[in-house]
């Protein structure tokens, strides 16, 4: 009732499924039921139909995240980030945070406003750490949160859980500038399956990175094959 059944609601659900702590869903929430249950209820009093489209979207967007709760539940490697717009201001309507478990890493970004925005996830908000001199306020970069390796020949592949698209970025670009994102109204991005790759002697990954220009594709490996086979594919298509 509060958030509706569209993008804002699923943005809130995504935050609930990916933030540390215990996510709690109400009875009938996935099915779209509206009856408010009391502790004394033995059965439902309303005869409500199941919203099959709502269930399917939960199964596509929320359930895969709940299956990976171990990645999101801890606090030891959790970082909350500022979202810097093009004019240097911080957009407080954007929630951005990363977490990690072992070598598995995740970055979640959600725009909680009916508007468009664009900018960079670059540095975390300040947080307190215990040192020999007492507690100090420190910040970390996105590259530190994702544990990226510096180097001009280092690339990182990652996939957006919601769209299913895979992206490629240079580690050096993420280290120096952070991640640039354009977000629509109530848009949510959940980046998972981070994988670092060292480019080969033919600079294959550099070529596919420059060819895509930040766009996502279903599979970076297939995009690389198509790029390498362009001398054959283009004449064949003509």
Unreliable stretches covering 5 or more consecutive residues: none
Structural class: alpha+beta
Describe the largest sheet: 8 strands, antiparallel
Order of helices and strands: HHHEEEEEEHEEHEEHHH
Question: What distance separates the N and C termini?
Answer: 54 Å
- Which geometry do the CA atoms define? globular
- Measured by DSSP, the beta-strand proportion falls in 25-35%
| Rg result | 21 Å
Strand order of the biggest β-sheet: 8-7-10-3-2-1-4-9
How many DSSP E strands? 10
Report on the architecture of this protein:
The chain has 238 residues and is an alpha+beta fold. The chain has 8 helices and 10 strands. Strands 8-7-10-3-2-1-4-9 form an 8-stranded antiparallel sheet, with helices on both faces. Strands 5-6 form a two-stranded antiparallel ribbon. The mean pLDDT is 93.
Task: Label this structure with key terms.
10 strands; alpha+beta; eight-stranded antiparallel β-sheet; two-stranded antiparallel ribbon; single chain; 29% helix; 238 residues
Summary of the model, kept short:
The protein has 238 residues and is an alpha+beta fold.
Question: How are the SSEs placed, and which strands pair?
Answer:
Elements: H1 7-18, H2 52-66, H3 69-73, E1 79-85, E2 94-101, E3 104-111, E4 117-124, E5 127-131, E6 134-138, H4 142-145, E7 154-160, E8 166-170, H5 171-177, E9 179-183, E10 188-198, H6 204-212, H7 220-228, H8 230-237
Antiparallel strand pairs: 1-2, 1-4, 2-3, 3-10, 4-9, 5-6, 7-8, 7-10
